[in-house]
Amino acid sequence: MSDRAPPAVRSYRLSIRDWAFKYSTELQLLAGLAVMIAIFSLLEPSIYPTTANVQNISRQAGVLLVVAIGQMFAITVGGFDLSVGANMGFTSIVTAQAVADHGVAAAIVIGLLTGAAIGLVNGILIAKMRVSPFVVTMAMLTFLTGYAGVRSGGASVIANDPTLKWFGGRDWGFMPSTIGIGIIILLVAVVFTGRTRIGLYVYAIGGSRETCRLAGIPVARYEAITYMITGMLAGAGGIMLTARVSVGQAGLGAGFELRSIAAVVIGGAVIGGGKGRLSGVFLGVALMTCLTVGLAVTGVGTFQQQMAIGIALVVAVLISQMRGGSFRQISDLLPTLKRLFIGFGHGDDQSRRSARPTATTDSASDDTA
Amino acid sequence: MTPPDSEYGPDLNAASSQVRLPGDVPAARLDGINKSFPGVKALDNVSFDVRRGEVHALLGENGAGKSTLVKILAGLIPPDSGRILLDGSDVVFHGPRDAQRRGISHVPQEVQAVPDFSVGRNMLLGFEGPFDRKGKLSSKEREQTRDVLDRCGASFSESALSGQLSIPELRLAQISRTLLHPGDVIVLDEPNAALSENDAAAMLDRLRLLRDQQKAIIFVSHRLTEVLGIADRITVLRDGCAVGTFPRAELDKDKIVALMTKTSRLSDSNRPRLAAFHSPSVEATNGRALLEVDGLTREPNLVDVSFRLNAGQIVGMAGVQGSGHGHLLRAIAGVDGYERGQVAVRGHALHSGVVRGAYRAGIVLVPADRRASAIVSQLSVRANLTLPIHSIASRGGIRRIRKERQLAREHVEAFGIRPPNTEMLAGNLSGGNQQKLALARALVSKPDVLLLDEPTQGIDVAAKAEILALIRQLVQEHGFGVVVASSEFEELLAVADVIHVMSRGRLVETFPTEEADYERILHAALP
Question: Which class in CATH covers the domain with range B1-18+25-103+184-195+214-260?
Fold first, then answer.
């Protein structure tokens, strides 16, 4: 950044180094995934690395992928959605009932609209009324769980329709339909985030609401739309689960709210907004599903699986924070820890470090001039 | 740097018993402090000390490094290099609590209080016993806090809820908090910025008392009269360097202004070339002013402010911190509402407090708080430039990437953003380049009225000159009107056609730039 004549404006291609830096979370996840798969394959060579198991994993991953993509939008715009699981259960009931009354095609449309409507209500409350996402989506979770029970009379709704099975129950050739749908939605989402104005605004609003406001963007509208998309994708997940188990159930999506948030955060998104990539979400979902299935296959109990997921979540986030500034923060903790354990002595000069992460000298700026 | 004691004049306040033992070590000493923030060197080899029983005032323009220096002493930020000595021995602070424990009391510039706690509870924050209740104060606590508040001349009770107090009252409470458990070194960062004359006077009396108790007091302020009334020594900072330390007797208001004034005017050579990407967008205004502001009032920051802005004109709003020039821009842009008055663009009045309305009328604000509100640091330069809603780079909600890249390349080139990489994250740019990006983005919005709030705050000198040149060039090419609010007056002298001076929310003086000079502005601006 000298006073020399400015060099020609660089082309928009990223160098390999920039690329590796930008996608370091993904690279770490890929490495972690490879190590994990290798370990499970060595432990259970006859079960884990088989076609049947890969299909099994992807069958489970498909639904989570769809919901997690939706969750990523909510997190990227600066909030989160705790109601996705309840949304799935409610949509499941609505869809199952609609299949009996109106046929599969109508039922799917109704299901998606239901999910979207739920998301829109969340979005309006959060973006326009400025209620905190936690309160809004938790209230929605509670409300929907109850309402689903009211609609179904507390019972499951049979939805045993052969056509519906194509959307989450059967395999499309060798590929389970859930992962097929998941990948289609993923591709659509890639185009959405990269090529549309709303996609850009999701990131921009999450990054700096105030900047967007001053740039003349109707922030509340776009934020509400984002939650609507989250809701719609949760609805899609509900439909897929309904197709898979052939019944509509209020409790079908229980646990998906936290699993989807975990997958998104493992994938490098930041609670608070502005950051989050679909590639990371995909790998986060893959990692979580491979881990759960792997643990189940090796005979680890359900409770221990939950413990493992919890640990994985924190470890993944810690590792991804270790690059750049936060690594320094961790090393800065050392003198504090030392003092905590050794008592309050006077600090020594060795612990002094430069004040802040050198944000301007990230590798991205290496090719200056 | 430190003058010998004999230089102290006889006119010093007799009450300030100058107990100066031979070989007296300063209570606190900063030695050769360096501190850089991304894109700017905040402190350059600054040394500074304060002795027991003296008030040492720290003066300088905004951005001169005063706050950075006291924050380092208070343990809020670590220095890049340099030593901190307390009573002659080296120390390293691990955070503010550490500094407090070693006897440094800091009253920060910003008002800080838990709004749901009572004043007394806030004052005692961090000093509670293990079983103190959140709600009512014990009678002992009540007595303690009441006593300090009384001595500071507070008109509110210790049981009042902090959230219901006004800013000046909260300030007073905050100062009282420090006086409750004063360390040996007391650092006050602009303590009287929002205080009324009476409260400020009471506060100064209290400081004199502390001085008599052999406390070492560091006093940062803009109010020269007060500084001259209380300080024993005065250190002037300029652009991160210490200009010098002087005994009170050697200085008067004029001398201080001269010391604070920079000798080198910003040159306007070295202007970057600007590609003609935008066509002039301002239509004829039929003889009317482009922007008319009438009697804008939002107590206490804005009081009856009126001015005109014509197309192709640059109006400068000068003021020291807290004088309301930034609030004025925010009110015009609709970020803040106002109580009375009117803002009109081409004769059409705007609604108070509606950002979108102002934006549609062609008003675009580039706020002072760059990182938080002028750019999106997590997005690339290109994406930042695509943000404005009417950007040409999208059609029917679909982004036209090719067009975006072209737009980004042309703007990066025209505004001289370095490194010239359109895909770089905006947050990784230096401050000056972030500001150029913010300007470029504002221009993509095709403004009629561009409001720039402290456009060169925290930017190094070279980038400052470049940005000012850019502003002038943009106005010449596009013919829109610009209002620049700044507390760095020589940049207004370099860029503006007319300079209005604001003080305590009022427009106190207006100079055509030819007639203005730095000292006249400073004189008018200082309350």
Answer: alpha beta
